[in-house]
Amino acid sequence: MPTNVYVANDLSDGLSASTQISPGLSSDYWSAPSGSTSLPTGGGQTELYWIDRNEGITDHDTWTVTSTVTIGGSPVLLQIQLVGTFASSDITAQIVANGNGTGWQANDTQLKFVASDGLTYNVTASYVSDGSYNDVVFAVSQLQDTILPQIDHVVVLMMENRSLDNLLGWIYPSGTTPAQVLPAGSSPTYDGLNSSLSNTDPSVNNGQPVYVSNGTTDWAEGSTTISEWFVPSPDPGEEFDHVTTQISNDMGGFLTDYVTQQTGTPAEQIMQCYSVAQLPIISTLATSFAVSDAWFCSVPSQTWPNRGFVQTGSSDGNINNNYLPWDITTVFDVFGANNLSWMVYNDGTLQSLTKTMFLGQYLGNKTNFSGISEFQAACAQPTGAPANQKLPAFSFVEPNFGVIGNDESYHPPHDVRPGEQFLATIYTAIQQSPYRDNILFIVLFDEHGGTYDHVEPPSGAQPPAPGAVSSSENFTFDRFGVRVPAIIVSSWVTPGTVFRSNTAVPLDHTSVLATLRDWQGLSGAFAANLPSPRIAAAPNLAFVLSETEAQSWPTLPTPPASLAVIPEPDDSEPLNSVQQSVLLGASGIAAGRPLTAAETHAARARLRTHGDGRAFLMALQPHLPLR
Known about the structure:
single chain; alpha/beta
């Protein structure tokens, strides 16, 4: 029985293909086309050739059929490979253009490329069932109205629970200005901190103002000391009601809210913000590439809702962290359905928070979840390596959240130095990549986590879908959350850029989704599968990549400490809600199903401290490691 190979030409001009096979094969076993095959316009399928899947294809031998098509002035190879087996043959397809290829793929695949005429084209290879053997259809189309033709890979690293002021408030001291602001004509100064900003509370500092500080300090807590690297400690409130208090009175409620969180700990520390000297890694990236001083998290609340917005455009009506897995369509689903590669990379031995949040969808998925060493290996591939050996089209990267090992997410009250080290690890892997000019790297924080910021979140946000109203708080998602750090790293960014939205709609996490949509020409797929009005309204990020020639990437300074000297949390330290989530997800993976609501409630009651977490993991040990 044969496999038939077709081409569907959706371009406005006709194409032609010449086909060869290696090694030679008798015309008894394939159609052996001579000369060129005309491929008319209109999107209809034209047969290139047929090839028998068993007759003439001997055991263990390999045949490669190459059809060469010139698209936009660039030669493109449409290739089929058969490897003989005992009873038949295995088939794979590959697309190669401008020296870049997909690698041999047994599943549907695609390649986007910029041709010699400067236009962006998309070529797909799809397997279509036809009796005993699949046929293969190569489809050629031009990507209309797409953005970022110089980008082949988007990498998003999302950290945890810090405001823009808390980490990057002092990167442009008074009297200094960025090299460029975007959009042009917007404020020429960075909206960071100044020494006049303060909060007051009657129970703190005799009711006198507590001013922001340039740098954190050690704090005495009874007979112990809170190190400067752990400020603020304990963890500030991050739930919806806490954030509502914090942003009240013109952002004057942080001190008052923190008084309710701390017990014997100086509340003044909530007004301390890290200096550039303390955080050399994230500060260097912010001033060497593009940093936003007006990027707001999507929800004035916790981690799960905000991560939901960056991956789905919604939190499905959840306003606070929800420990039961969500069952809504994600951007990963849309990419997969459109033959676009994606991967979630996370550090540590446990599964990613993404898998935890969408456990019902991704429990058995071992293909799209991997570790940081695999991320580094993909970055290190040469420019001409097959696409399946390089980074996927979209990578979502997560740090170790500190259940096993140090927390690398910057989440208070953990030491910020492992976060600096992890950020340096990811940046360096990309900076040293031979194909870094084709990578867009976005560094984000999911929410502010209760840490101080002086800019009030704007109202008027478009509702999400699904879940436009929170049943628990009757919140309609019409207010954005607090500002968070957002850094765009790319060869095509002007060093020293500060950017804000170039539309009337503020930047929030759904701008990542709007960028992915417009980059890959997925307007129809998003409208059908990710129809959230928040995504539809969000500005994309193409305007930030304003350079026409690739810029250099700096080598980072040395992070402020070695991980070897940073102790893990002791058994009495509380687990934060993210750490509890990861443990509950690990339990679900070990059980082979998501936990029920009753099981989740019972497990949460047992998971109060890191000591509880370590005991919990011991019971799961036979089922580890988990990814």
